[in-house]
Amino acid sequence: MDITEQKQVQEKLQESEARYKAILSAIPDLMFRISRDGEYLDLKSEGANVTLDREEIVGKNLQELLPSDVAAISQEAIAKTLDSGSLQTCEYQLATPLGIRDYEARLVVSGQDEILAIVRDITERKQAEIALQNFAQKFAKAFSCSPDSITISTLKEGRFIEVNDTFVKLSGYERHEAIGKTSFDLNLWVNASDRLKLIQELQATGVIRNLEIEFKQKSGKIITTLLSAEVIDLDGIPSLLAVHHDITERKQVEAKLRLCAQRDRLLAETLVRIRSSLNLEEILQTTVNEVRQFLQADRVFIGLYNANSGIKTLAESVDPKYPSVYGWSTNDEDYIQELRNFLKDNVVRVVEDMTQMPQSSKVRVHCQKFQTRASLAVPIMLNEELFGALIANQCSAPRNWQPIEIDLLQQMSEQVAIAIHQSRIYQELAQLNINLEHQVRERTAQLQQKIQEVEELHRLKDVVLHTVTHDLRTSVMGNLMVLKNLFNQGVGTGDWGLGTAEQRSTGAQEQRGSRDVTASFSPLSPPIPKPLPHSHAPSPMPYAQSPIPVSRSIIERMIQGNDRQLTMINSLLEINSCEKEGLEIKPEVVKFSTLLKGIFAQLEPMLTQNQATLKNLVRADLPLVMADATRLQKVVAHLVTHSLQNNPPGLNFTLSTSVEAGMIRTQIQDDGVGMSKSECDRLFDLHVRDPQDCCSTSIGLKMYLCRQVIKAHGGEIGVINNRKRGLTFWFTLPLATASAINRS
């Protein structure tokens, strides 16, 4: 029997069966053969993520293995598949060792009253779908509730597909007015070229972030937004997702801040100009230039009022396209009064549209002549006085003047008022200065004349002082010579008359034992000179003459009086010479302790006669000083004499020194009577002391000379009232420098 054909059919069947098994093995899904009544006929679980025991499945019914709800869904799907002969799908969840899993079953007819069910685990897909749904819901909420305007439009035409509520509020267009329309249909672009730039940028980079663009609202108002956009695919159509963040308010605030900063700078610069310049014309012109630039106005000018000349424009900055008002003036009282009424009570006059402002025919003609459409005027006031006005004009169109612009003009008008007031003061000062200069010249001439007169008086004073003091000195010295000769020759022991030669001899011996009053008063007074050849002093009385009825005490007082006069005359001559030619000293490098020791050695007789003691605390190792020994000897003698003459006998002195700050300080302290602070302060001044003090004038002159001597050395001198009793005289002298020591 020829079975070739049969063998071929079997081979083909085996090949088909092998391919079928290979396909089934490659499918990673579970496969079940199920009868109409729900019995599992066969299964394939290899390759799936769940391993099932064949014996536990085959022969069992759906109702036995699946939850009732899942079994019912599966039974219904089997019936539909067999009845319709078409593919049916169903989804369900099952509890597994891995947790609740989602499955999808695809059912096809596989035989008589049986189906093939391909079951796939779709848990991950279901989770992704849920996440996508959640994302979509969130996106929808973000889209609709976003505070920023969000639009979806076609990339090619810009036709709106979707817009959110914020877009409706921002643009002014309702949703139904925008959907299906392009941005050009809605006239949103202020600059049409901006969209072309936007598309080019998107094509180059695919994204745009915070691009600042201006848009026009439905009302025509311009707003500024920051645009961020990306290209998205919407059902295969390239679309544009755009987000607009409105920054109009922020831009307005920034612009206002810039204007405020510019205003403050302008005010500060104006203030500096006013303070640094007195040129009023320059200040006014610079002011109008700066104000016009700030306001971007067509014209800014300053008009000043003068009671004599009326109103006149003194400074102006104007756009060349419009007429100039510079130099315009008027004396029309009615017109001036009307303008003054505009600014009465220091009120700003704001006119946004001249055509809507009631005004007189004169003002209307003036505005037409200079093409004024809007005006802002502020008065220039100071101390309730109206100087004029600072005025800004808009000639091209009406204008809405902003508060910051009004504020600027008000503050600038205050500065201009200060500048005008300052200029007036300067003019007054200039006139006063001219008058003052004239007065100064006159007074200078008078002063020069007075100086010449004073110089002449000083010259005459010097001549008189020189002549009188020399004549007085000659006369006094002559008197002293006569009186001392008489005193030395001896005076009668009685109250009156001269004695015999023997008595005169006895008187001379008494004189030698008596106290030398003249020496005790001033040990450094110049010796009594011999009679001058031409002196008018009387010659000594010869012994053979008749007795002279004079008392010994009177002669002694006459000697003391003439001695004081001679000392005073010598002091006056020395003071005059000092003031006229300066006190001349001849300082030398000396050892100060030795110098002081020598000075007080010469003063010893005077101290002894006055029963005074000296306690010397001066160290022997004192540094060298620069001093004129002769002058310094007189200073110390005068200080000691002052204490002796103002205290009874028995005075105690303490001499001490100290070195401080390159100076030697010498102190002569006594335990006598003290003085008040005011007396201490003026002791060394040139003045006449108490007239009751018989030695006041001479001592005052000597103390003044002491100060001049110490100052000539470069030191200071003074007196201190001791706390307990007595006075402390002190003076300072500079230490000798190294160069002076080397020279010596």
Automatic annotation (TrEMBL):
Keywords: Kinase, Phosphoprotein, Transferase, Two-component regulatory system. Residues 502-511 have a biased composition (Polar residues). This is histidine kinase. Residues 157-184 form the PAS domain. Residues 563-737 form the Histidine kinase domain. SUPFAM superfamilies: ATPase domain of HSP90 chaperone/DNA topoisomerase II/histidine kinase, GAF domain-like, PYP-like sensor domain (PAS domain). It catalyses: ATP + protein L-histidine = ADP + protein N-phospho-L-histidine. Residues 498-545 are annotated as: Disordered. Residues 1-15, 209-259 form the PAC domain. Residues 279-415 form the Phytochrome chromophore attachment site domain. The keyword Transferase applies. It holds the Pfam family PAS_9. Its EC number is 2.7.13.3. It comes from Nostoc paludosum FACHB-159. In the N-terminal section; belongs to the phytochrome family.
